[in-house]
Amino acid sequence: MRIVSIVGARPEFVQAAALSRALRERHHEILIHTGQHHDARMSARFFDQLDLPAPDLNLGVGSLPPSAQTGAMMTGLASAVAEADPDLLIVRGDTTSTLAGALVAKQLLLPLAHVEAGMRSYDRTMPEEINRIVADHIADVALVTDDAARARLEREGIVRGVYVCGDVMYDEFLRVRERAAAALTAELQALTRAPYDVLTLHRAENVDDRARLATLVAAFADPPRPVLWPIHPRTAARLRAFEIAPPPGVVALEPLDYLQIVALECGARTIFTDSGGVQREAYFAGVPCVTLRETTEWTNTVEAGWNRLAGARTGEIRAALHAAPARPAAHPPLFGDGRAAEKIVAVLENEATAALVRAARATRAARAYAATSAPAR
Predict the structure, then answer these.
(1) Where are the domains of the chain?
(2) Catalytic amino acids?
(3) Fewer CB near the terminus (10 Å): N or C of the chain?
(4) Which of 276, 305, 304, 303 is nearest to 291 (CA)?
(5) Cα 86 to Cα 98: distance, rounded to the nearest angstrom
(6) Residue 377: what pLDDT?
């Protein structure tokens, strides 16, 4: 089977690494990078470390306003995917690349598989929420991480083509965690010898509003132990523009590669983040997480007691900084058994998916025949 896989941002690179290895054992995958994350620290290094094959095409879209970015991606993807003539197209997660890839698949009458389907924060002010809802409702194959995600789709009327497979990010985390510490630089090794916390911030609602960003940064003033903060390029630009400096005790770091961030996560006392991917990685590592958002799509980690929502509430953030970390006795397998990629490939090879591929091929052939045989006017 010929399969086009769309990636564009850090979590998608991690997801694609696990799935591409499994797919390429028996199928031909064409990997298209939209260029959504174009900084080498957020893109090229991830491909190298994850043993992810180089993209067959990089659209190089880069940073643009959301509507312009989506349009540029769709324009590039439409011609590239049509030329590739795949049997099926895969998108993953909830990024602008997810939305653009999903829409192009349907415009080209291609079966669409959505990895990490069924996640909801129920906050439609988040672009990611809109992206995942649209992708779910037009996907032919919904590949969900757990039964809770399956139940959410069922409540929205999506019951066909839904498969519980686990989380491919967990597959990759298990593969690399033992060797992650070796990727730390001498500086990072020195910083991690004593207890520390980790902070990440990048979402628009947190970093594009000067007052909110200033409140969040100020909440980490005078921490009881170092707070290691790998600063996302978007966040770094806002800090400069707003003239906000990390307070004493917060160690500003350049963006880290995947192995380095995994190593920091595994050794942290508590992780503070607004990232969906980092929330999951905190759970994988068995480290308490404080989410700097009002909502999360990863409600299962909150329900399990390993994650709490603090928003930008200074008191809650500082309480988590100064109190003993909440480590529940139970750590249930919320994200599968580390074999999600194998299960996804099995779904893509089953008879139901094969029937979708045959039907889509027949529809495209019929449309093409009708277009070429129509009488001239």
Answers:
(1) 2-167+336-373, 182-322
(2) 202
(3) C
(4) 276
(5) 17
(6) 60
